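Morning. Coffee machine broken again, so started the prediction first thing and wrote up yesterday's gels while waiting. Chain of 309 residues, entered below exactly as on the submission form.
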Amino acid sequence: MEFELERLGVHESVDAVFPPGELAASLADLPIEVAVIDDDGIPSCDAVVTLEHREAFLEVDWVHSIQAGVDRFPFDAFEAADVILTNSTGIHDRTVGETVAGYLLLFARRLHDYVANQQERRWDRPEWDEAFTLPGSSACVVGTGTLGRGVAETLGGLGVRVTGVRRSGDPVPGFDEIYANDRLFEAIADAEFVIVTVPLTDETRHLFDAEAFDAMRDDAYFVNVARGPVVDEPALIDALEGDALAGAALDVFEEEPLPKDSPLWGMDEVIISPHCAAYTRDYFRDVGEIVRENVDRLAADEEFHNRVI
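Came back before lunch.
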């Protein structure tokens, strides 16, 4: 590799997901200095583990994102400055898969209604035909990477028939059928649940717009655990308000935190979570394993694991 690693900083921004000191402590046995840093501490580091981007990262040799998504980092600037960027893809499959399964179970078993009723001390049972079970239902997962495969595996265990959409139409383990990207509308047309797990790119920005929602069943539920801008949010709100969809579970939004005046907050059939689908008490350990592996690979002059740039 092109540099010698002596000091690794765990940037304070990771505190939004886990205490930075937990990760630093778990890496304390590495043959380098590991410290929790703020913005002022970036220049003293050769590498930084972070959630957010800072311009000062252009002066270090290696940046590791604790998330799989890296759309917040300026690729061109990193390449020009010879900064290596790695991410945490591969650790979120089961956590996000279980969160999505939770959303589907909430809708199917009407659990979100019961939680809302409890707040008002209201004893109110569902209509006879409202609740259903998941076996035999269908879900289309748009994006068959780590997140999509984790969702498919978890839902498959609940008896859901899972189809997928990916760039090519090649088969993927865990999916009953795969559609190529150019067959998106066909893929989502008959699914009872449409789940988005694609990364945010120029091609996926507003992938789900009014036309896409029109292609879905009016009794379908929409789930987004990808990135907010993958969805045209006003188009989604229009579809929900016009009863063109049965409901939605949303972990990500075009603006975060979701503004208090968003109509999404007040919709009975919309479940909102604050961009935390992958959160788990072991998150810092999972990130630490990737960081540790890459420190070892650097020492052995081997290629970085999960290298993006």
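The chain has a mean pLDDT of 97. Going to sketch it on the whiteboard this afternoon.
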